[in-house]
């Protein structure tokens, strides 16, 4: 799904910085490889400066052995 979208937000909602999600030791190397792959194909990008909004990353193994990664954007949904 190439391209960008623009979301209108409520500026009265304060940004949230959530703590990092816990990653099982057995998933760390798979997670690193998957994040590098997603960065390489342009799905995500590395952030080199502070961000107002930080969400916890969640990772888990799917039933067929693939890694599933996602964030929990509940605090951000209040701003939309």
Automatic annotation (TrEMBL):
Record-linked InterPro entries: DNA/RNA_pol_sf
Which Gene3D superfamilies did the record assign?
HIV Type 1 Reverse Transcriptase, subunit A, domain 1 (3.10.10.10)
Write down the superkingdom of origin. Eukaryota
SUPFAM superfamilies documented for this protein: DNA/RNA polymerases (SSF56672)
Spell out the protein name for this chain. Uncharacterized protein
